[in-house]
Structure prediction request, 1289 residues.
Amino acid sequence: MAEHRNRWNWEVSGFEPRKSSASVEPEEHRVAAPLVRRYSISAASVLSGENSDFSKQALASKLQRLKDKVKVAKEDYLELRQEASDLQDYSNAKLDRVTRYLGVLAEKTRKLDQVALETEARISPLINEKKRLFNDLLTAKGSIMVFCRARPLFEDEGPSIVEFPDDCTIRVNTCDDSIANPKKDFEFDRIFGPHVGQAELFSDVQPFVQSALDGYNVSIFAYGQTRSGKTHTMEGSSHDRGLYARCFEELFDLANSDSTYTSQFNFSVTVFQLYNEQISDLLSESESSLQKICMGSAESFIELVQEKVDNPLDFSRVLKAAFQSRGNDTSKFNVSHLIITIHIYYHNLISGENLYSKLSLVDLAGSDGLITEDDSGERVTDLLHVMKSLSALGDVLSSLTSRKDVIPYENSMLTTLLADSLGGSSKTLMILNVCPNAANLSETLSSLNFCARARNATLSLGNRDTIKKWRDVANDARKELYEKEKEIQDLKQEVLGLKQALQEANDQCVLLYNEVQKAWKVSFTLQSDLKSENIMLLDKHKIEKEQNAQLRNQVAQLLQMEQEQKLQMQQRDSTIETLQAKIKSMESQLNKALHSTEASSKYGSEAGPGVSSIPKATADGMDSSSVTKKLEEELKKRDALIERLHEENEKLFDRLTEKASLAGSPQVSSPLSKGTTNSQSRDMGSRNDNNNKGRSMDVVPSELVADKSDGTVALVKSGSDKVKSTPAGEYLTAALNDFDPEQYDSLAAISDGANKLLMLVLAAVIKAGASREHEILAEIRAAVFSFIRKMEPKRVMDTMLVSRVRILYIRSLLARSPELQSIKVSPVECFLEKANTGRSRSSSRGNSPGRSPVRYADEQIQGFKVNIKPEKKSKLSSVVLRMRGIDQDTWRQQVTGGKLREIQEEAKSFAIGNRALAALFVHTPAGELQRQIRSWLAESFEFLSVTGDDASGGSTGQLELLSTAIMDGWMAGLGAALPPNTDALGQLLSEYAKRVYSSQLQHLKDIAGTLSTEEAEDATQVGKLRSALESVDHKRRKILQQMRSDVALLTLEDGGSPIHNPSTAAEDARLASLISLDGILKQVKDIVRQSSVNTLSKTKKKAMLSSLDELAERMPSLLEIDHPCAQRQIVDARRVVESIPEEDDQLHELVHYRKSPADLGSSTETDVAQWNVLQFNTGSTTPFIIKCGANSNSELVIKADAHVQEPKGGEIVRVVPRPSVLENKSLEEMKQVFFQLPEALSLLALARTEDGTRARYSRLYRTLAMKVPSLRDLVGELEKGGVLKDVRS
Prediction:
């Protein structure tokens, strides 16, 4: 039955196929032919007893053949069952072997864990010894240590009064002239000058953080007056962090380095404020579900919210929330203490050791104790509470350093809460912050005395008499500590090796587990295949039973019909005997009638009925033969219809172009538009036109796009190019944007509408041709991608159509990008793999497509396994071949239609989301790709037929069918989306578009960077650089605008890699500087132009120099690279202005007023660098042509014919007077002024009246002056001064 799957089954059950519809059978077998070909038999077909014997023999032979088929099927079933049993035994044995090996690995893992625990037990005493030695070393330096830090001076604070003789001494100038030595020295454990940063300060604080992690309570205080730098020391800034962040980061790093899988550290934070001896928890407002902790003594304690922190980011977040809860009242900050406590919890699983310690960071209130008369009562109360708490803290520290028996912790709430962090084995660090200016001398001395009292009472390394003793102790401790650390390091290396061995064992376990999973999958697949084969055999057996039952029923019917025929024959015999008797009687009567004339009439009357009865019997026979002939004709018509449908099926691919155009046109409705949309779209572009006449023409646009190299199809249009609008593009854009799935009743209708729109797009591109293909693609790009994006979640589009559209756009992008064209893809052999051959006869329809790893570029790709096996000729197949009349020696295996559909579905599953395969499709023409697939199939599967002659009843070779199925499956899979991601071709198109955009932006960035580093020498170069940078910036903005319009193409839900948009801050700054420089140079040029005279008035010269000074003051707004050019131009202009002689203002005005109009109009300074031509059409045949320019005095100069009637050789050059010359002049006087000018100018300016002439001349002067670039500023000045007031009238 599998051999018939390569064609549609139009045969009726119970009939054998006709070998030739045109064959002519002998006359005697025409009636019996239906009984030979079919199982069902018509009652009208049985006409004689001889044919019934022949039908019995045919039925008996068919029953025997069915029994043989059932026997062969049972044998195959038993064989398959035996194979399944063998495979089950094999997989059970393999599972047992793997299980035993897993047990061995588990035992090794347990031993490694035991060794690791023993090693941890050996390391734990060494770590405790290390902690004890480090604590002894820190205690030897002093349990209470004092650091002093001086902040830098502000600008208005005067000179410094402090000096730093060495690292442990600070010297203060008391400015007391009454004593011999006004300078006083204070000695502390460490002195930090104004130049010391936060990092160097923390390097001396780090040992206290290490002690806190070792299990000892540590408190760090920031003490000093207001504005001395306490808060900066603790908090720091964004670029130079303080002790809060640095201490926790150090704790976190030390905990990570010391933690193992048997021990761990946990941290939590409490933050509260002490104001007027009242506690306010700053974390109480964050979350009510947080745990609380009690702090203080048993008699006086408080409950605070503690928040767990796992990393420095959590710690920063908690501090930020606490600071927000504290508020913004700075006056309150100065009289309140801020206490941040980091609680450290340590737990060891082996020894069961639990340690708790805490690190308290205290930002004390200002130590300003001076109360003035202006202070309010609340301010005085706050200061008294601060003085009380600080005094109590000083008493506690003094008592601890003096080793008194009674420590007054209860004198203040601050010392009560921090009692466990001040005395006993705890460590205390006081960081004194002082102001180095003279105004705060008293507060500085008070703070130094306060901290000196706490330090000098204890013995420390600062005492010179015991330094040698403690140095020896420290050296011994360091030596012992070094030995312990070395031993700990060796043990850690051993633990690391054990962990590595454990990791390798775990990896082997994972590999074995994967093998077990694969074995289970193979077993499950075999079982499912066996079940499917059993079900198929049962169905086959059931069908054969039903056929057997039908045959039995037909045999019973035949027997019944035979009995009926016998009865009919008996009746006919009796009828014949009756008729013979009648004939004899009529013959006797006829003989009697011959003897008499009267008997002739009687003979005629009696012979009529007899003669009519004979034709009647003959007519009955004729009716039976006519029924048989009609039945035979109907069967022939039916066979002809079946053959015609087969031919239509074979020619389906040849009519794809017609059907695609009919289904894609909105005016023509195709009868197959709903039923065959998917089949048509799947066949588009899937066959090679070199090997098949019926090749679909939809492949042509893609291959043409792939071969383009002129770059006409551009994703980003440069310059001012705009996408042209076409009627087809407008129609498609409107149709895609207006498509609303909600208007359709069913998914089938939605799918039909969406696929029709996609086919319209492809048809429009084909109709546009190669010359206009890029225009239509660019015009509908946004609408197409928005439509695909909108319809992807509904999964109603034909994925092959989506692939065709995607490939069109990707190849148009390749045509304009050399970078994308240079991408190398792996050959098609890397994407195909031959499946492992074996004896298994199970169907592969239940299996997923096999994949094997293949390296492609920088990513891991998979190879598609083509699962085709040579079919073994079993007994059943031999019987089938004999029944069909096919020679077994010339028989070759054929690929069935079901197998082709199966391969196509597997290829589609393989291609979904496969971007490497999408790249292969884009960079390789369709015809070449199919040829490579066909070549690989021919090399890998030699048992397949090569040409169409080997296929029975077909016109296409097996290799062609297989390659077409793989191409169709790949094409359909590449266009299928996996929400929330788009299809593979869409991802490739987005990636390529991003690469093109990134390369264009980077290219413009490089050009702008090169231009921004060039130095301009003069105004001309400044203008060129400015124009070039503005052009680059304009192109960059056009690209960014195109990116915003392509948001539907560039947006992916998985993020993807973003478009690299390099920063252009430096280039923008240079452009702004060039714009400012251009303005400055224009003003300098205007000043130089105004100074191009023989003399200047004092007022005007002073104004020019003042303008140059203002321009020099604007130079700081320029970049350093533009300073030389501006400076050089300003200096040159100043030199020119200063070189011009001065004269009195009144004398200058008098000389200027006495200049006659003739002098104004006949100036000899007509040296014009460049002429600009204007043409005035007056309605006559010859227009007026006037050339205009500017001389060195910034005056308007024209060149035109002296007389209009003499255009050749009569040009004159004149300086045009300003419109102010015509004020208070009559019309005749104006004509005298115009007499010395070219006739064309006077004709254009003169009017009937004086006012009309002035207005026309003003407009003419403005038109001519605006044509000259250097005179445009002069026109603006004249308009402001009212000289050209008649221009707009």
The mean pLDDT is 75. The first helix runs from residue 33 to 37. The two ends are 101 Å apart (CA to CA).
